[in-house]
Amino acid sequence: MKRGTLSLDRSQAGKADEASLHAELDAVARQLQVLGADAGVLKAHLEVVAERLGEAERQVWSDQVEFCRDPMNIRQAPSDPSTRRVILKETHIAGAGSAVMLSVAIDPRDLPRREDLFSAAQRYL
Questions:
Q1: Between these two residues, 33 and 10, which has the higher pLDDT value?
Q2: CA torsion through residues 18, 19, 23, 29, sign
Q3: N or C: more exposed end of the chain, with fewer CB within 10 A?
Q4: Residues 41-56: tens digit of each pLDDT
Q5: Nearest to 86 by CA among 111, 106, 117
Q6: Ranges of each domain in the chain
Q7: CA distances from 64 to 18, 23, 88, 118 (A)
């Protein structure tokens, strides 16, 4: 898709070089003739590909997952002043379930600010 300057982004739509796209499709058709692919099977497979690309936003999407924990790593309400929030992206793939990115290395600037223990003690006194 990149070679044909195609993209799923709306801003890139309609910018494909039609001549190069047709040349690539012709090359694929020649390769399929060499393989001896049945025209009926090829048509069915291309229909499946076109259908999936037509509903791409329903095939792969992501949501944010928010964890609210206190300094002892106990689940708390987001409104609690001692709560630290960690937001992860959960990726969903149609028919394959979902996955959450496992943070292996975190830039210290991305971590929540450490709570000042003196200020925390003042709240309880």
A1: 33
A2: positive
A3: C
A4: 778 888 888 888 888 7
A5: 111
A6: 10-56, 59-103
A7: 38, 41, 6, 33
- Cα separation, 2 vs 16, whole angstroms: 9
Q: Which letter, b or e, does each residue of 29-55 get, where b requires 16 or more Cβ atoms within 10 Å of its Cβ?
A: eeeeeeeeeeeeeeeeeeeeeeeeeee
Using DSSP's 3-state secondary structure scheme, residue 114 falls into: coil
- Rounded Cα distance between 11 and 26, Å, is 27
DSSP letters, 4-55, are TT--SSGGGTT---HHHHHHHHHHHHHHHHHHT--HHHHHHHHHHHHHHHHT
pLDDT higher at 104 or 11: 104
As a whole number of angstroms, the distance between CA 48 and CA 54 comes to: 10
> CA 24 to CA 73: how far, in whole Å?
55
Residue 125 is classified by DSSP as: -
